[in-house]
Design a protein that fits this description.
The chain has 237 residues and is of the alpha+beta class. It folds into 2 domains: 58 residues, 2-Layer Sandwich (Alpha-Beta Plaits), CATH 3.30.70.3550; 151 residues, Leucyl/phenylalanyl-tRNA-protein transferase, C-terminal domain (Aminopeptidase), CATH 3.40.630.70. The chain has 7 helices and 11 strands. The strands form 2 sheets. It has a 7-stranded mixed sheet with strand order 6-7-8-9-10-5-11, sandwiched between helices. A 4-stranded mixed sheet has the order 1-2-4-3, with helices on one face. Strand 9, helix 5 and strand 10 form a beta-alpha-beta unit. Helix 3 packs antiparallel against helix 4. The longest helix has 15 residues. The chain is globular and about 55 Å long. Keywords: Acyltransferase, Cytoplasm, Transferase.
Length: 237
């Protein structure tokens, strides 16, 4: 079957309306363009994200359903709370962005990851300009879990996470959810719904509902001091 997609111009970072995204495959919206910081931020501000393989053209998506976590409703199971208290793990923010994104790519292997070298370089640019952030989980001096994503006002668009120890990525998302809520953050966009995300409190939202929330909060500033340098002083309750 032939797919007809809008081709993005190199000198124009605008996207087609997300209502024009395909039903099959769900959410495929456009092709081409580049991964410049301006285009990436234009995408996230409109509920769009890039997703493509190493040998694929640049593909842009806005699926009909989004997985959304409201930070105050993150579900921390009793077993997670107990394990976190005993683990001695600490959490930092923006202390090892390049390592986090590289590990997220490595653990999936070259045949499965969409986090290509081109993608890593692009998100590192976003990080250096203050729009992309990482959360790191440490066991002593060893990085054992983390996640990264893009901030759009009071919404955090999560991209990927990893864990090399039990509960490492859950701990990262839990701690970040607590802090983000305290600073006035409203929603964490996890993109695609999975049973794992559902177990952590993610809810399926329609594209329309998500876009409405995004437009309402994408220009909303959150508290001074965000992002901080460390989350380690946040006590688990």
């Amino acid at each position: 079957m032939t797919l007809y997609l809008p081709s993005l111009a190199q000198d124009d970072v605008r996207f087609p309306p997300v209502t024009e995204a395909l039903d099959h495959p769900d959410g495929l919206l456009a092709i081409g363009g580049d991964l410049s910081p301006a285009r990436l931020m234009s995408a996230y501000r409109n509920g769009i994200f890039p997703w493509f393989g190493e040998d694929d053209p640049l593909l842009w998506w806005s699926p009909s359903e989004r997985a959304i976590i409201q930070p105050t409703e993150f579900h921390a199971s009793r077993s997670l709370q107990k394990a976190a208290r005993k683990s001695g793990m600490t959490v930092t923010l923006n202390q090892a962005f390049e390592r986090v994104i590289a590990i997220c790519a490595e653990i999936r292997g070259p045949e499965q990851t969409w986090i290509t070298h081109e993608m890593q370089a692009a998100y590192c640019q976003l990080h250096h300009q203050g729009d992309a952030h990482s959360v790191e989980v440490w066991q002593g001096n060893t990085l054992v879990g983390g996640l990264y994503g893009v901030s759009v006002g009071a919404i955090f668009c999560g991209e990927s996470m990893f864990s090399s120890t039990t509960n490492g990525s859950k701990f990262a998302l839990w701690q970040f959810s607590q802090y983000f809520a305290h600073q006035g953050g409203q929603y964490i966009d996890c993109q695609m719904m999975t049973p794992h995300l559902a177990s952590l409190g993610a809810q399926p939202w329609s594209r329309h509902t998500f876009i409405d929330a995004l437009h309402a909060h994408r220009d909303r500033p959150i508290a001074d001091g965000y992002p901080p340098q460390r989350l380690a002083d946040w006590r688990i309750t």
